[in-house]
Amino acid sequence: MRIWSSSLLLLLTLAIGCTDATTADPDGAPLPTATGVYRGAYAVPVPAELAAAATFPLDHLDWTVIGDVVTLHYDLPVGLVGGDVRIDLTGRLTPGATEVVLTGAVGSGTCTSDGQRLSCVEQFTGLGALPRSMALVESTAAAEYAGPVADRVAVANVFGQPDPIGVATLELTAPVVED
């Protein structure tokens, strides 16, 4: 499974146009240089038969820029990990960059943008045992997912393998307006 996960991470990274952080990608848009809070989604790479169950909506992803340091903060979906799992990844943001590598205690990610979305391909190494509670994965799937609960359980099991990978997407056109 580790070889499959590593190979899939490489393919995902190549698919989103991985480049050197200091080199402009002619197909990519510059990364946001202002702090913002966005809606988005978290997707887990899975076999085709589970694809419909592998994307989870996220209501709150923080992209915080202070000077040349950017931090991505969000919680992994409870319906995926069966509990509270906070993600904090930080990196150096070069002006005009189309890619940034973020790292943190739980893993790392590479983020790119197409101007509408910011996508971060992430590999985690410090999340601990997942899912935290399969009962919570099941009850969340029953309440929030229109498809079979068993499919969400299968996605959680795929993600729960050593060194989980996934893609966090921030919808740059859907900022969260807080009162």
Spell out the blueprint of helices and strands.
Elements: H1 2-15, E1 36-43, E2 55-66, E3 69-75, H2 78-81, E4 86-92, E5 99-104, E6 107-113, E7 117-124, H3 134-144, H4 149-159, E8 165-175
Antiparallel strand pairs: 1-2, 1-8, 2-3, 3-4, 5-6, 6-7, 7-8
Protein architecture, described:
By secondary structure, the protein is α+β, with helices and mostly antiparallel strands. It has one domain (2-174). 22% of the residues lie in helices and 37% in strands. The chain contains four helices and eight strands, in the order H-E-E-E-H-E-E-E-E-H-H-E. The protein has helices at residues 2-15, 78-81, 134-144, 149-159; strands at 36-43, 55-66, 69-75, 86-92, 99-104, 107-113, 117-124, 165-175. The protein has an eight-stranded antiparallel beta sheet. Strand 5 (99-104) and strand 6 form a beta hairpin. Helix 3 (134-144) crosses helix 4 (149-159). The protein is globular. It starts with a helix and ends with a strand. Mean pLDDT is 88; it is low at 1-24.
Summarize the structure.
With 179 residues, the chain is α+β, with helices and mostly antiparallel strands. The chain has helices at residues 2-15, 78-81, 134-144, 149-159, and strands spanning 36-43, 55-66, 69-75, 86-92, 99-104, 107-113, 117-124, 165-175. It has an eight-stranded antiparallel β-sheet with strand order 4-3-2-1-8-7-6-5.
Radius of gyration over C-alpha positions, nearest whole angstrom: 16 Å
Please state roughly what percent of the residues sit in beta strands, choosing from under 5%, 5-15%, 15-25%, 25-35%, 35-45% or over 45%.
Answer: 35-45%
So how many helices?
4
Order of helices and strands: HEEEHEEEEHHE
The outline comes out as globular
End-to-end separation: 45 Å
